[in-house]
Amino acid sequence: MRRTVDPPAADEEQPTCTSSQPLLKQDTPERPRWRTTRRDFYHDEKLMRGLKPRCCARLGLGTLIFLGLIQLFSVLGGLLIVFVPDGIHRIMHQWGRLGHIGQGLSSWPTDFSRGILPIPCHSHNDYWRRVPLYSAIEAGCMSVEADVWLFREELYIGHSLASLTPNRTLASLYVDPLVQILEKQNPTTQFHPDGNVSQHGVFDTAPEQSLTLLIDFKTSGSALFPYVLSALEPLRSRGHLTYRNGTQTINRPITVVGTGNTPFNLVDSDLTNPHHDIFFDAPLAAMWEGLPGETSTPAPKPESLVYGADIDASLPDGSASERQQQPASGEDLGQGMSGAAQSSDAYTSENSFYASVSFAQAIGHVLYGKLSESQMNLIRGHIRGAHRRGLKARYWELPFWPIGLRNHVWDVLVKEGVDLLNVDDLKGATETDWGSKTGWWS
After folding, report:
1. What is the pTM for the complete model shown?
2. pLDDT tens per residue across span 108-132
3. Choosing a second label site near 334 at 20 to 30 A (CA), which of 78, 184, 297, 396?
């Protein structure tokens, strides 16, 4: 039977919409979540593309921060050991200090040069260094050089006339400091109140090693000589100068050698060098000797191979008027030539100490980064002749650049038996493994 719905009665109140009862939204079916439009797909893809770089950047930044924190903790740990040491580190760091283990035991009277080992190098133009003399000693050099000029009865130190100043003298830069150093190295204590002990040199690790003071006479040698002799009196009176006693050389903390315009005839004279405590820098080039059976001397290098002449050799002739006296025949001819002997056999350990020559003039250019066989023959002959006479072989005016070439020349000279390296670069000579570098390009 069919069921029907009766319409509402006429007097029945019909529902109406008021402001407080909004119309119900007509129900519409919701789109399933798995159904997306093309527009939604492109929007999501764009969003994902932007997220990938940002995620990578954040990951990389996080990694860097993590590594930075590790490094920071490592540094802080090291600082902690330094500032808050423990165990052996605390003892090593605080030993000898007031109130700690070893109080008063960290120093001794002769610790001026503690830990410095002397090495056979010569501090060329030592007065140019920021701290003359002391820089060379700190590096371990066994020899220092001072260029001396005589003006108005005073000995000034400098490489040229333009570089001289009133307060830089032989006494202020070398003699007085050496006296002070040696007084500290030779104290009078309760263990030897009379001072009857052997003289100690500037190197505490090798107290018997003498320091050579090479004095380059820049003005007239004959005029300079008596002034230099007098200027050395503070060292001489304290027994610090090496000297000859007539039969042997008495080694002392300081050995003085004259070079440049130093006259050999004044050094070798009992009248002008009565204490025999100034030695000569002999001409190495005149001492070439071949092996037994060899009589010929290698041909000298042509003048075209000479390079880098000394700055003072280029001074104008007018500067000679500022010297104390005009040079006589055979005087003021430069290293090893002033007042020279007739024969190279006159230079012995009784009157000379070094035998030197300009590497540039005697050996010449080093072509292709390697010494030639004839150059090696010259070097070996020079060293052989110097040693036979009891002298120390030294070359000055060595090549200084390229660094690899310089190192190669140093290495060869040391291996061939040269007694002293003439160096300007103290750090390069004493702290660098220059023996392993042989190429000119190094």
Report:
1. 0.72
2. 888 889 889 999 999 999 999 999 9
3. 297
Say yes or no to pLDDT of 31 above 80: no
The pLDDT value recorded for residue 215 is 97
Cβ-Cβ contacts under 8 Å for 130 (sequence gap 6 or more): none
Hey, how many other C-beta atoms are within 10 angstroms of the C-beta on 74? Answer: 10
pLDDT at 111: 87
CA angle 183, 143, 419 (to 5 degrees): 135
